[in-house]
Amino acid sequence: MAGSSFGTLFRFTTWGESHGPAIGVVVDGVPSRIPLSEHDIQYWLDRRRPGQSKFTSQRREPDRVEILSGVFEGMTTGTPISLLIRNVDQRSKDYDELRDVYRPGHADIAYDLKYGIRDHRGGGRASARETACRVAAGAIARKILGPSVEIRGYMVQMGGDRIDPARFDPAEIDRNPFFCPDARAAARWEEQLAAIRKAGSSIGAIIEVVAKGVPAGLGEPVYDKLDADIAKAIMSINAVKGVEIGAGFAAAALRGEENADEIRAGPEGPVFLSNRAGGILGGISTGQDIVVRFAVKPTSSILIPRRTITKDGRETEVVTKGRHDPCVGIRAVPVGEAMLACVLADHLLRQRAIAGGR
Asked: Which of 141, 185, 199, 314 is 20 to 30 A from 55, comparing alpha carbons?
């Protein structure tokens, strides 16, 4: 199965299935002598972990990470870092009825058409359980980037309900289960999502991730543009159906004089008067904040009957039982942060190689 690795110099490969004994990731390209412990990784995994509120999957996974290689006496050695996360709360019997039934909106039918076999237990390799590995890799990427680069994600929309930018409060992000910077919006979403879950349905979301302190000059034109790699990284996340950077699709409604970020001379270099480009011009970072937004579809694992077919072509209906997120956008926030961190770490190492290690 190709496609389980991501990155160039900072490169990681994930493995494992949702209902297997464990999942894991091998991270290669990490420079030596970077302080790294399981605690450094666990902090970020805990933000993604299921079962932390009534609005996420009630699967009880501690997601405890184990470092198997690449670290000695608390420092990276420059060799591949292997991480293990054991699965401890699988309920495979919840999926017995899906052995020969394709869930609409899921990867079931696509996997069967491609491979002629699929793991029906929670989606196997297609499960969002795999994203825990990405978050672990992202924790290591953050160590490479250092404390000067801050990456923060949050939900800006659930369904058709958006936050009010005038009420944006960074302190609110960690005070509610939605990673929402608008306390009033979070209160509305709590009521809305409770009703959606009770009805056996689900809803989508839009996530914004901002990276501050990114140095200028990251990105490799023409085909390895920084924004191109970011878009690929984010689109590879389960359930993501759209990505935009900066003004994104809204730029299509702007005039040239509105969209172009004007520049003035500042005491420490160029000063941009706006950031509709999202911190990237010509595929290269400008030193401004990198702003990424992505749309997450509503999960197709719902209790409302949906029409489908069986593996042998019979028409039927399916109801997806088990433990599922009514809004997968919530736990996509730390995953989006992690993937942006991995892209930035990769391009930082590539830029250092060009600059002779400077």
From this structure: 141
